[in-house]
Amino acid sequence: VDFAGSLVVHTTGGLTALIAAAVLGPRKGRFYYDDDGRRCANDFPGHSVALKVLGVLILWFGWYGFNTGSVYYITNKNQALLAQNAAVNTTLAAA
């Protein structure tokens, strides 16, 4: 079952990213040609680890709201258990 149109959303985003990457091409300075005329890739330095961690934490926090909020409302014990199960699965999925 496609929940909340995720197939359409992810297909559209992926196809758009693929087309944009094909149109834009590689980053400047990404490739060079060696003495034999072969195309080689330059190594790029790493990026900020602190910003990577911050991004992961922001996404993880958002997933709690989305996954447990998918219950819509809690009016009985079964719906509360469903929301709890979603929160536990979200926590374990990051492990």
Concise description?
This protein is mainly alpha-helical. The protein has helices spanning 6-24, 49-69, 77-93; strands spanning 31-33, 39-41.
Descriptors for this entry?
95 residues, 3 helices, two-stranded antiparallel ribbon, mainly alpha
Structural class: mainly alpha
List the uncertain runs: none
Looking at the chains present, what oligomeric state does this protein adopt? single chain
The number of strands is 2
| Helical content band | 55-70%
C-alpha-based Rg, rounded: 21 Å
Largest sheet: 2 strands, antiparallel
Strand/helix succession: HEEHH
Straight-line distance between termini: 26 Å
**Strands side by side in the biggest sheet:** 1-2
Principal-axes shape call: elongated
**Helix segment tally:** 3
Q: Work out the strand percent.
A: 5-15%
Report the mean per-residue pLDDT as an integer.
Answer: 87
Write structural notes for this entry.
Helices cover 60% and strands 6% of the residues. The chain has 95 residues and is mainly alpha-helical. It has a two-stranded antiparallel ribbon with strand order 1-2. Helix 2 (49-69) runs antiparallel to helix 3 (77-93). The chain is elongated. The two termini are 26 Å apart.
